[in-house]
Specification:
The chain is of the alpha+beta class. 27% of the residues lie in helices and 36% in strands. The protein is built from three helices and ten strands; from the N terminus they run H-H-E-E-E-E-E-E-E-H-E-E-E. The chain is globular and about 40 Å long.
Length: 139
């Protein structure tokens, strides 16, 4: 009897900690109407004077800025975000790092990127690139 009394709370605590049946799948509603700023690209911290952003709107439209402005429509399936391409202004970029980020975001969207979302951080990554964003709401 004493063993049963000890084991039952232990089992209950194990299920509570493990989040029994908790899904880590990101849903489009988790992203929509949120604004993120890039803090790290391929492991390198971004200088604070570079304002690089990504925003998710209605129907999974994205808008943002690396060196150039971009927008597109993406889908989210099994924690992978993907789109047919991005509409992007193609102005010459005096900042080489930001110019390279234009190609990185386009690569992530076209090839597809695994997405990880926490309370205040968004990570987009594939076999070639990884971008880490911080949540920064406009309001």
């Amino acid at each position: 009897m004493k063993k049963t009394i000890f084991i039952l709370p232990l089992i209950a605590a194990t299920f509570a900690i493990s989040g029994c049946n908790k899904s880590n799948n990101v849903k489009d509603t988790d992203l929509m109407h949120h604004h993120f700023v890039l803090v790290k690209a391929n492991g390198q911290e971004l200088a604070s004077d570079k304002y690089v952003e990504l925003e998710f709107g209605e129907n999974m439209t994205i808008t943002g800025k690396m060196c150039n402005l971009f927008s597109g429509k993406v889908t989210l399936n099994d924690n992978v975000i993907k789109g047919a391409g991005l509409a992007m202004t193609k102005m010459a970029c005096p900042d080489r790092e930001l110019g390279e980020l234009d190609a990185v975001i386009e690569d992530l969207i076209v090839k597809g990127a695994k997405i990880e979302l926490t309370k205040d951080q968004l990570i987009l990554k594939n076999e070639d690139n990884e971008l880490t964003y911080k949540l920064r709401e406009l309001m």
